[in-house]
């Protein structure tokens, strides 16, 4: 079977409540396209499960939800994936509760799957320097764009979707500030360092090279392309950064736009950045999300003690 609802039995009607929930998330909460796609995927998967048992997803009870979680465990899905899908279900049933379709929340008594806290993956400062140096070897329009993308990503710690989707007007007149629209359509100001600002200015001289001829040199995007959405895709940028990693002698599997975002945060914090300021630059709505980077520092300190402390090196006297 193919299609968005391919997991549902043939002839089983799709849930109008799932569609209504997605519309609400887009219209009232301003959820990003990627967030909406994630909710849609997770709720469609649950819809397929309930349909196989003769029910619509909005009519599920706690027992059915527990069986759904058990099926995911049996299928070998990670606790992180199961927790994400349960989170989508919680939001869905809260929506049904607020719309008076249901008088209860069947997820209220269900605990989230236990997840081991994984530390963010990041590159060392020396590895980032190698990546940046290698980018600057590239020339021409493609090289100027690659340099600008890497410099801005590491200087600002943007999400990859925020970076590739920057509008041309996001850059301040002095070229030192970016106005970034993040999750939930929230705007924040992120400062550029001199290297990133210079890289953007140098790239803008080549920007029209990437605008499709049909648009006659006009595009609202900072990084235009022939892609359907009109700007460079996340997948294409991911490919470019992995090729660059290989050229810099770094395992491409260790490098991605998100790893550079983590590197930005980890390195800033290691050099004494304020956690609240870092939260604002990263666009985190909750400081708890930002605090995970303090665990990175904890691990660094532990490693330093193990490597350099006399008692760690020579053992107890």
TrEMBL record:
A Pfam family per the record: Phage_integrase
Signal peptide start-end: none
Alphabetical list of CDD domains matching this protein: INT_XerDC_C (cd00798)
Active-site residues (renumbered): 159, 183, 258, 261, 284, 293
Top-level taxon: Bacteria
UniProt cross-references to PROSITE patterns, sorted A to Z: CB, TYR_RECOMBINASE
Subunit-structure text: Forms a cyclic heterotetrameric complex composed of two molecules of XerC and two molecules of XerD.
Function: Site-specific tyrosine recombinase, which acts by catalyzing the cutting and rejoining of the recombining DNA molecules. The XerC-XerD complex is essential to convert dimers of the bacterial chromosome into monomers to permit their segregation at cell division. It also contributes to the segregational stability of plasmids.
The protein, known as: Tyrosine recombinase XerD
Organism: Varunaivibrio sulfuroxidans
Taxonomy of the source species: Bacteria, Pseudomonadati, Pseudomonadota, Alphaproteobacteria, Rhodospirillales
């Amino acid at each position: 079977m193919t299609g968005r609802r391919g997991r549902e039995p043939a002839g089983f009607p799709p849930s109008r409540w799932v569609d209504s929930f997605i519309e609400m998330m887009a219209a009232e909460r301003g959820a990003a396209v990627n967030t909406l796609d994630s909710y849609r995927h997770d709720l469609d998967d649950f819809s397929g499960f309930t349909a196989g048992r003769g029910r619509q997803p909005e009519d599920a009870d706690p027992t059915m939800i527990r069986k759904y979680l058990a099926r995911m465990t049996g299928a070998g899905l990670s606790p992180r994936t199961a927790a994400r899908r349960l989170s989508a279900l919680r939001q869905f049933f809260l929506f049904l509760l607020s719309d008076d379709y249901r008088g209860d929340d069947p997820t209220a008594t269900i605990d989230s799957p236990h997840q081991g806290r994984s530390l963010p993956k990041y590159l060392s400062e020396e590895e980032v320097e190698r990546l940046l140096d290698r980018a600057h070897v590239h020339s021409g329009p493609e090289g100027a764009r690659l340099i600008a993308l890497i410099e801005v990503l590491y200087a600002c710690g943007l999400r990859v979707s925020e970076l590739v989707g920057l509008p041309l007007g996001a850059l301040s007149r002095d070229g030192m500030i970016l106005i970034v629209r993040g999750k939930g359509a929230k705007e924040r100001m992120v400062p550029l360092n001199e290297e990133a600002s210079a890289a953007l200015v140098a790239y803008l001289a080549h920007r029209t090279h990437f605008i499709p001829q049909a648009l006659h040199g006009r595009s609202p995007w900072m990084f235009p392309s022939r892609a359907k959405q009109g700007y460079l895709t996340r997948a294409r940028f991911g490919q470019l950064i992995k090729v660059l990693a290989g050229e810099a002698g770094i395992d491409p599997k260790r490098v991605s736009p998100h790893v550079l975002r983590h590197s930005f945060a980890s390195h800033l914090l290691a050099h004494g950045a304020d956690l609240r300021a870092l939260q604002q630059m990263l666009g985190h709505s909750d400081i708890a999300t930002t605090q995970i980077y303090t665990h990175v520092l904890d691990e660094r300190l532990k490693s330093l003690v193990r490597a350099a402390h006399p008692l760690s090196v020579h053992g107890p006297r």
